[in-house]
Amino acid sequence: MEAILDPGGTTIAAIATPPGMGAVSLLRVSGPEAIAIADAATGGKASSALPRTACYCHVKDADGRVLDDGLLTVFRGSNSYTGEDSVEFTGHGGILVTREVLSRFLACGAVAAGPGEFTQRAFLNGKLDLTQAEGVMDLISAQTRLSLRAAHSQLEGTLGKRTTAARDQLLETLAHLEAWIDFPEEDIDPQTGVLLRGRVAAVLDVVESLLATADQGRVLREGVRTVIFGQPNVGKSSLLNLLLGFDRAIVSNLAGTTRDTIEEVVNLHGIPLRLIDTAGVREAVDQIEIEGIQRTVRQIEAADILLEVVDASQPRTDEFILPAISTKRLLVLNKSDLGEHATWESTEAVRLSCSTGEGLGALSDAIRAALHFNEADWGEHAVAINARHQASLQVARASLRAALTLLDDGAADPELAAIDLREALDALGEIPGKVDTEDLLGVIFSSFCIGK
Fold first, then answer.
1. What is the CATH number of the domain that holds 171?
2. Model's pTM, two decimal places?
3. What is the radius of gyration, based on Cα positions, of the chain?
4. Residue 37, SS3?
5. How is the chain split among helix, strand and coil, in percent rounded to 5?
6. Which of 9, 99, 215, 234 is the most exposed place for a label (fewest CB within 10 A)?
């Protein structure tokens, strides 16, 4: 979707509730003609309604036949989500009736909204900065308590405020540096060079601290890639079912039952785990199993954490040789209810019985400890940057480091440091949307659902 350069020129409408049948549906209309369009569809109810007060009305077609009845709420001007006149209609949740109401609003002069267009208008009208707009999508897609907390923090503007404060400090620093360059005969401050370096270093510290949350942000949005692997018939699929709390994978005593990877998401202490059950690793007996084992190896290479499952009731055998990776790895001794073979004695591992569930709590604690991702680690700010923020911050970090190197070099031209600081300033401005980047806006808002 292309960026909207003139959000006030058209009036948009969309269904804001998920597709399908439900108890109620919500339709939104926003733009300069929103109230007039709602009036045409409801017989003048919108213009006579008190702002932010729901009133009962009928939506009628061009011939006066009632399409639906429900509640109409009017939001005027800057007191709306988008920062322009908006109307919301809450009616019955049938698929057909909802579409008919939307069609009526469109027939009265509205145009169909694109993905994220309401939130994009909120950004363009100054109701949200770009990080807050992204926080709206994070809030909608949050799967765990921690991801919900991080989304709320971003929606409240925490990230935008921190990057804007750093940018403002850098802007002031750049102004001092350029004054120092342009007016060398003026004794601006005998400590200017030292003070400038300290200010740049302070901004760099902020950038470094935000970059440190990149892994947490990725985990909260995408989940921890948790690969369950091991030899056939050791209980990998049983472990997947146990962690999920329902039977997702087929469990059989027949070795080689799992031929392809199975992926599901589970909430573990606020952390989303993307559990991936893989084919058993052994000498393959047919081409299909060979492909399954190759996929297992690829999943292992891409994993954030590995759960290696073995049958503790059987003698220890040669371990599977992993690819050259540094991924965290937990050994799970399954079938502990059948008794542990002597060869596993004193082995550091999690003892578990997928049949009885004994040891599940210990496994959950071990996974959380291995990830170093406790809720207490978040502190109060719960900032979690995404890939876009990370890319901008990396550019800012590189530019700030280059500027510091030049400032430390007494023979270097200070104008070169000023160029680096301007690059860092632009990179920081991209995060809350202080720099005009139409392509960037199109990419961000195209991932939203229609009606938001």
1. 1.20.120.430
2. 0.71
3. 29
4. helix
5. 45, 15, 35
6. 9
